[in-house]
Amino acid sequence: MRKATGIIPARYGAIRFPGKPLAKIAGKSMIQRVYEQTQKAKHLEHVIIATDDERIFSASRAFGADVRMTSPDHRSGTERVAEVAEGLKSPIIINIQGDEPLLQGQMIDDLVHALQYPTTVMATLASKVTALDLIHNKDIVKVVVDKNGDALYFSRSPLPFRPTDHFHQHIGIYGYQKEFLLKFHTLPVSRLEAIEGLEQLRVLENGYKIKIVSTPFPALSVDNPQDIMVVEKFIRKGTNG
Question: How confident is the model at residue 226 (pLDDT cuts 50, 70, 90)?
Fold first, then answer.
């Protein structure tokens, strides 16, 4: 089994929710909760938090995480992850979103399994959604998949246009062969990426494939302060794995 290194990019200045990584969720910072959830994965040999903010750096060190300071000039979390990955020996890199405090270890392990084949340069997760009214929610990224399990397209718009029983919600945790990550983040922003505001479209527009790994676990990311109450409700029920 080729193991992987997980990297959690974290920045303080999110437009919709400044200071989000340090926001308290049931008594712990969000970045700590995400980090602790990654420790439940069986196929990560190491987890690193990557940030350009001293407050996040200090808080992460305080709960025992390996944290690295990165350039403040990065335009995306992927660039921040790539900076750290460049100095690692690990052949597989998992980009773990810092706003998924209910992340399950199995989700990470499933991505690592998919990337055991070096020809699979990139993989990400999707879950089946049967509440069809949610397809119009622009905060939910949808993905359609071909018969081989590779992504055809991602969009914030309804996709497909008229689902009859379900659609697939993309979950923004990515796995890469390290060498592909270092190549991908240097490619120029693509046209569809700019239109949709979805970085993964750059991969498809440049002719590469993204393997979609189905997961039974729902996505519950924190995009604004109101989402914290929803996450805390799940934690009280003991449903955070």
Answer: confident
